[in-house]
Amino acid sequence: MPPYRRSLESGGAILGSVFVLAALVIIWIARLSQGRDLYVSELGAAGQPTAHWFEGALLLIVAGGSLIAYSVRGIRSRFAVLAFWAPAVSLWIGCGFFLIASQVTCTSGCPLPVGASFTWQDFIHTVVAVLAFAAACLGMLQVSFAAGHRSLARFSLAAGIAVAVIAGAGGILSLAQFQADFGSRLELAATTIALGWLLVLGLMTALSPAPSRAPTIVDLEDSLSVG
Questions:
Q1: How far apart are the first and last CA of the chain?
Q2: Which residues have C-beta within 8 Å of that of residue 114, sequence separation ≥ 6?
Q3: DSSP class of 84
Q4: Which of 66, 68, 125, 157 could serve as a FRET partner for 139 with CA atoms 20 to 30 Å apart?
């Protein structure tokens, strides 16, 4: 890879990490400003004072995640079942769903889209939010079994398991309408871990040394002529 292209990719990964960090800070500030427990999606509900901040945070995730995905497009999983597409594709898919979620927010209170409280707006937002998390977890799992990235793979496996378990538990509590306050804290924790993983992925990719280039026939000829 030419040095200038490597520099551009590293710069893009760092910029993407900055966007993701900014989104995480915005989400936490918006969440703490409410003075009560609520699910992250409710920050963007119509009428909420944090609605525009929530939209901005999701758009930052979309932009940052897309930049990071481009920088890691060369990473591949070792296992065929996880190698149908690159982790970058999973990240881009997740970013696409987050883009939809930023524009189609839930209604006030973010009720579950079932029964008398059903609305297409809540249904669309809930589905795309779940799919975005699923795509992110798939990307983590794919990176967990990437060749040549041992430390990143271990970190990705731990983060993927944590996000899947914590977000799953929060979702179950939400569906059961039981301990919703605790469930919202679990969702915030899962969101934090997922964005933290994306942030670290971008930084580790940007700061990792450029892959060595295999010698070509021209290189061998040049070395022989010098000798």
A1: 27
A2: none
A3: S
A4: 125
